[in-house]
Amino acid sequence: MTHFNQQHNLWGIDLGGTKIEGVILKSAQEPEVLFRYRVPTGVAHGYAHILGQVAQLVQHLEAAAGYRAEQIGIGTPGTTIPKSGLMKNCNATVLNGQPVRADLEQLLGMRVVMANDANCFALAETRLGVVRQHFPDAKVVFGIILGTGVGGGLVVNGQILEGYHGIAGEWGHNVPKRGGRRRLLLWQNGLQ
User: Can you give the pTM of this predicted structure?
Assistant: First the structure.
C-alpha cells in the first residue's frame, strides 16, 4: 500500500513536446515513485490547452495523494528568460514567448519552480540517481535527453551550469555551418 506524506513527498512534472508526465516521489532522501500519471501535451491545440493539460495532471496527483501540494517542480522543453519570465528555445514552439510559470502559478494556485528539462535530468541523476549511486565523486556530469527535442544539461560540482543565456550544456541545435538562420532551421528539421 502506498503511503503519501505531505511533509516529505516531492511533486514534479515533465512538460514535453509530446507528453506531460507527473510524479510524486516519496522524498528527496528516498526518491521512490509513489504515483505517476501521463497526459498528451496536445501542442496543436495551443498554449491554453497545454496549461489545461497541466492542471488536469495536477488534479490526478491530488486525487492519488489525498492532499494538495504547496509547490510543484516542472521541467520544461526550453528555458525561461530571467528578465522577462518568458519561455524561449522550446521544441513545443507554442510555449515560446509565453509566461508559463506565472500562468501556471495563477491557474494552479501553488508555487511553481521551473527549469529546463535537460538540466533537471542531469541534476536529478547527480543528486538522486545513477551518478550518486555509482560515481559519487564525479565533479562534472553531462546529461543528454532525446525525445521530441534534444538537449543537454551540465552539472559542475553538484550545481547546474546555466550560463548567461540559460543554455549552457545545450548541444542539439547548434548551427552546423556558418551562414545563419536558414542553416539553423534546416538543422532543427533534421540533417539536410
Answer: 0.84
The C-alpha cell of 141 is what? 556530469
- Burial label for 93, CB within 10 Å (0-12, 13-18, 19+), is middle
Q: Which tens digits make up the pLDDT trace of 161-175?
A: 988 878 888 876 555
Find the helix or strand (DSSP H, E) in which 108 lies.
Answer: helix 100-108
As a whole number of angstroms, the distance between CA 77 and CA 43 comes to 12
Per-residue CA distances from 137 to 19, 28, 71, 127, 156 (Å) = 34, 19, 31, 11, 11
Q: What pLDDT digit, counting tens, does each position of 50-88 carry?
A: 999 999 999 999 999 999 999 999 999 999 988 899 999
Angle, CA 32 vertex, CA 133 and CA 14 arms, to 5° = 95
What is the distance between the alpha carbons of residues 143 and 19, in angstroms, rounded to a whole number? 20
Contact 149, 77 (CB under 8 A): yes
User: Beta-strand (E) ranges in the chain?
Assistant: 10-15, 19-25, 33-40, 71-76, 79-80, 87-88, 111-116, 140-146, 150-156, 159-160
DSSP state of 158: T
Alpha helices in 17-74 (DSSP H): 47-65
Rounded Cα distance between 116 and 95, Å, is: 13
Amino acid at 105: E
